[in-house]
Amino acid sequence: MKIIADENMPNAQRLFSHFGDVELVNGRSLTHEQVKSADVLLVRSVTKVTRELIEGSSVRFVGSATIGVDHIDLAYLSEHNIAFSSAPGCNADAVTDYVFSGLSHLYMTKGLRWLSKKIGIIGYGNVGKKVYERFAQLGCQVCVYDPLKMGSDSTVNFVSLNDVLACDVISLHAPLSRSGAYPTENMLAERELEALKPGVAIISAGRGGVINEDALIKKYQQLKGDMHLVLDVWHREPVINQQLVAIVDIATPHIAGYSKQGREKGSWMVYKALCQYLKQDICSERKQDAISSGAISVIEIKGEGCREEVLARSVQAIYDVARDDVRLRYKYREDKEKNVFDWLRKHYVERDELHTCFIHSNQADLSRLHDAIGFKSYNK
Ligand SMILES: NC(=O)c1ccc[n+]([C@@H]2O[C@H](COP(=O)([O-])OP(=O)(O)OC[C@H]3O[C@@H](n4cnc5c(N)ncnc54)[C@H](O)[C@@H]3O)[C@@H](O)[C@H]2O)c1
Ligand SMILES: O=C(O)[C@H](O)[C@H](O)COP(=O)(O)O
């Protein structure tokens, strides 16, 4: 069996080589020629799995080690009886950590007291739900817009899009879609952004095409820069709008989901799906090696300062989103000719998820706060 796998898929050789020959490839530039003799194709979000790529090939199974599936022509795969599996929720913790690291940065640099703000979320799927729950457990006033889930759970504060757009902090977690009753492409354009108020913080870690970048720049200018922006995803990746980069607080190269554990979980979920497709037993011993523990196991915390500061210190000890922003700005300045965006993603400096670390404190309220934001904690 021939397996083509994206070179950025962690553990690909280790997990898949007993099925057959694994060839690692650059997913962004993958061609039909490379794919045509493969039986199994394992991709990430940068490979457009279209008719052009796989028609006439021997591919019978496509796996994507990602949450998003907007790069896959699902209708084509199903019409041609090609099995497909993605990795729903694999990096939901990573993206949620990214959101709180972004807010921690806004507190540490600009004093944003986000815990007392009104929080609005767009999309209540695997990511949006986690983000919502962490805010709710932190005691924040939080609401969510998801027209497809509206009313599905009476304990959740579902609201209209306008209500979310009137919030102080807005976190975007909708998929990119071009059809259906509620397509998201360009869903936040000039008219919708009108509703934003001065001082709003926007965190965009879903897909780039959901927010109209020109309209966002215009709104920023209208508000005379009184806006906080944390952007991980961009309209024309891997090319990014440098005018936008120049005005945002945090610019990162689509790495919100790039925790070590999140990327490993993606590979593991696709491995399990392929075992199922091939009717082979899942080798659960492999899982122990497949998902790493964190590099820092315990943080001892005294808890001086306001709650945002206490949280920022511990969140940033595990993941400070500013490091990815600094790296991006530095690389774009130094290497203008190269594909900096993909280089940064390929050479990503590993980070762990918050839950891999215990918080040790002698104050019960600090433990609760840290549990709520995603750590594990225990009292002395
Ligand atoms: N930046 C990253 O690294 C990164 C990592 C993971 C996921 N993502 C993106 O985030 C998206 C969300 O992830 P997820 O795991 O929560 O996906 P999911 O499929 O579990 O949930 C998506 C949710 O969005 C809702 N939705 C659909 N159309 C909507 C609309 N018009 N308005 C509001 N909500 C709408 C759906 O009903 C669903 O509840 C993914 O599709 C992916 O594109 C980005
Ligand atoms: O949809 C996802 O899971 C994320 O966007 C994913 O982390 C993107 O990473 P990529 O597949 O491009 O390496």
UniProtKB/TrEMBL annotation:
Protein residues bound to substrate: 45, 66, 258
Ranges of residues in domain D-isomer specific 2-hydroxyacid dehydrogenase NAD-binding: 115-256
Keyword Oxidoreductase in record: yes
The Erythronate-4-phosphate dehydrogenase dimerisation domain, residue ranges: 306-374
Keyword Oxidoreductase recorded: yes
Entry's Gene Ontology molecular function annotations: 4-phosphoerythronate dehydrogenase activity; NAD binding; protein dimerization activity
Pfam families named in the record: 2-Hacid_dh, 2-Hacid_dh_C, DUF3410
Binding site for NAD(+): 146, 232, 257
Any one annotated GO CC term: cytoplasm
Pathway membership, UniProt: Cofactor biosynthesis; pyridoxine 5'-phosphate biosynthesis; pyridoxine 5'-phosphate from D-erythrose 4-phosphate: step 2/5
Entry EC number(s): 1.1.1.290
Listed PANTHER family: D-ISOMER SPECIFIC 2-HYDROXYACID DEHYDROGENASE CATALYTIC DOMAIN-CONTAINING PROTEIN-RELATED, D-ISOMER SPECIFIC 2-HYDROXYACID DEHYDROGENASE FAMILY PROTEIN (AFU_ORTHOLOGUE AFUA_1G13630)
Homology family: Belongs to the D-isomer specific 2-hydroxyacid dehydrogenase family. PdxB subfamily.
Subunit structure, interactors included: Homodimer.
Task performed by this protein: Catalyzes the oxidation of erythronate-4-phosphate to 3-hydroxy-2-oxo-4-phosphonooxybutanoate.
Protein name from the UniProt record: Erythronate-4-phosphate dehydrogenase
